Every structure is written in structure tokens, then in C-alpha cells.
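Anyone up for a design puzzle?
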């Protein structure tokens, strides 16, 4: 959830996206269930990850 909070604070997610993704993750009891997140939420999370340079630990925000 810290990563979602960081994405929100950097305006990479809207408040609604942050709430919806957080709610989905909280109610999902298994990784398989998390993977069933609706496509529009995955797309928002993927775009925020790219902007955050999540895949590169030495990215511009670190």
C-alpha cells in the first residue's frame, strides 16, 4: 500500500484510482485474485509504474 500511496502523492494515480486499487487488493485474499483486478485498474497501475520507473530500482526517483 505504501507504493500506492506514493503513486497518489506524486499524482500518478487519481484519488478514485487509488481507492479502487486499494480496495481491490485489500479484499483479494490470494495473488490469483489480485490478478483478476479489472483491466482499467491494471492499466492505471501499469502507467503509474512506468512513470514511477518502478522496474528500475536506480530510476530517477530513487
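Challenge accepted. My sequence:
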Amino acid at each position: 500500500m505504501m507504493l500506492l500511496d506514493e503513486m497518489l502523492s506524486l499524482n500518478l494515480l487519481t484519488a478514485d484510482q487509488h481507492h479502487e486499487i486499494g480496495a481491490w487488493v485489500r479484499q483479494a485474499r490470494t495473488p490469483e485474485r489480485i490478478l483478476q483486478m479489472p483491466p482499467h485498474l491494471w492499466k492505471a497501475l501499469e502507467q503509474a509504474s512506468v512513470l514511477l520507473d518502478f522496474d528500475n530500482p536506480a530510476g530517477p526517483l530513487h
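A detail worth pointing out: The chain has a mean pLDDT of 88.
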